[in-house]
Amino acid sequence: MSQRRKNCISKIKEANLDGVLVATGPTFQYLSENTRYFWQRSCMNNIDGRLSAKILPECVLYLNVNGDCTIIAIPRLKDEFPNEHVVVSYMDQMEDTLSPYIDGKKIGIGADCSEWLKSTLQEIDPEIEIVDAEELFYELRSIKDEKEIETMRKLAKFTDEAVMYVVTHLKEGMSQYDAEQMLMQYGLDHGIQDFSFPPTAGFKTRGTFSSEENFVFPRTSKLVEGTAIAFDVGYMNEGYCSDWGRTVYYGKAPERVKEGYKALQAGQVSMVSRIVPNKTNVNELYDFVLEEVEKRGFKDVLRFKDTGMLGHQIGIDCHEYPMVNRSSNGILRPGMIFCSEPKMMFEGECYMRVEDMILVTETGAEFLTTFDRDLFEFNND
Questions:
Q1: Where does residue 307 rank: exposed (0-12), middle (13-18), buried (19+ CB within 10 A)?
Q2: Statement: the pTM of the whole predicted model exceeds 0.90
Q3: pLDDT in the model for residue 45
């Protein structure tokens, strides 16, 4: 039995559960330790770190307190879980197929297909106590093992390379849609399985929009001199996600905008340098960025000063707990990977973002995304 499975069983015991029942989704992937099964992902469903993606499952996993694990799967998926006890079932018969394996009176369920899971357990035994267990393994999931870290390190590097390819191949007259399709096609051409969310390259051309249109990004916008491009890109491969962001500027940027970008990057770098593993709380990180940005005279354009919203953990899902803002409470520990995405808004000028994937180490923290921090202005003509 793997160490992950042992840790999960310990969590089940701590919660005084007899077992957990989960449908296809991130918790399923984590418990099965299987990254080859391609389950449905929807970025907007997990924007706050919690999701419910499907109505009916095509496979479910039951893990009891003794460590017995059973996966009920439709025929097409019978060979997707070679190291598990798999029982084949037609979708409409899953309740009957699952029934012999439910061996407890207090069962935790995951968020995916939760209504189906509840009704199924009630049909199997009306006396079963059903407990919401979606968050039961969040703490375990937040600490990545060496294999997970290596997978995400490769994804971060790939994302850096993808955006650099697009930046160096953009030409005047291309549309925002063209840039976003280039990001997508680069991933497909290099064997990426999916996207963490739709690739975004938000075009904003100086003097062409009002303050009321700061967050309006028509995909028909054309690349011309004086256009800021706010990239937000995430790829998914081998069961894990990346998430990355930068703003670059086509042509010569106004001096204040250029200095604002330097301040935002300085805030990001300063924040990472101040992380002390097993001591720093996620709710401190925004203010680390704010202090540096304020020192450089750009506090007025930094966004989310009221909530301190800075980012999120990342792994199997793009948005995982603990979220990174002032209202969260979570100590940063070695093995955590989180995304920090401070933003500025220069009204009528430029929407600016910097987003990195950051690994907490035994001695501090390191950037997994290493895109050139000095690259802001560009011109490919």
A1: exposed
A2: yes
A3: 60
Q: What is the DSSP letter of 124?
A: H
Give the pLDDT confidence of 172-231 residue by residue, as tens digits: 999 999 999 999 999 999 999 999 999 999 999 998 988 888 889 999 999 999 999 999
β-strands 19-23, 106-109 pairing: parallel
Q: Which among 118, 128, 133 has a CA at the least distance from the CA of 13?
A: 133
Cβ atoms < 10 Å from Cβ of 49: 17
Enclosing H/E stretch for 323: strand 320-324
The bridge status of strand 377-378 relative to strand 244-250 is: parallel
* Entry field: residues in the chain: 381
Which residues sit opposite 146 in a β-bridge?
Answer: none
CB atoms within 10 A of CB 16: 10
- Alpha-carbon distances, residue 134 vs 107, 113, 116, 276 (angstroms): 12, 11, 15, 29
**How is residue 247 written in tokens?**
């703003």
Q: Please tell me the predicted confidence (pLDDT) of residue 92.
A: 84
Task: Find out whether 31 and 19 touch, Cβ atoms under 8 Å.
Answer: no
Q: CB neighbours of 265 closer than 8 A, spacing ≥ 6?
A: 354, 373
The type of residue at 144 is: K
Q: Which amino acid, 47? A: I
Alpha carbon separation from 268 to 225, 272, 314 (Å, rounded): 28, 6, 17
102/65 Cα distance (integer angstroms): 11
In the chain, the amino acid numbered 217 is F
Whole-angstrom distance, CA of residue 161 vs CA of residue 158? 5
Residue 354 gets which letter from DSSP?
A: E
| Nearest alpha carbon to residue 201 among 223, 186, 224 | 223
Q: What digits encode the pLDDT tens for the residues 1-31?
A: 899 999 999 999 999 999 999 998 899 999 9
The single residue listed with the structure tokens 């009630």 is: 122
SS3 227: strand
